[in-house]
Specification:
Helices cover about 40% and strands about 25% of the residues. By secondary structure, the chain is an alpha+beta fold.
Length: about 90
Amino acid sequence: MGTYEKIKTDDGSETFRNTEIDECYHTKSGSFEEALEKHVKPSGLIELAKTQNEIIIGDVCFGLGYNSLLALHEINKSNPQCEVTIIG
């Protein structure tokens, strides 16, 4: 399993580093930035929220939850009335 060390990333978010294999869960530039740029924006959720009042998200590898958190944040900015269900 390894041991874990909490790391603060450049955007102020936190991630963990597995000290046994020297690998972080997220890039050091930022967990929020990575979730937004690699997952939320490419998924099309922001544009979808502009025309939908209900969205269901399947988050297969929930992990620390940053992808779902940023999805909720961006959907709310796009359409505060949109109801979101996350299945993790």
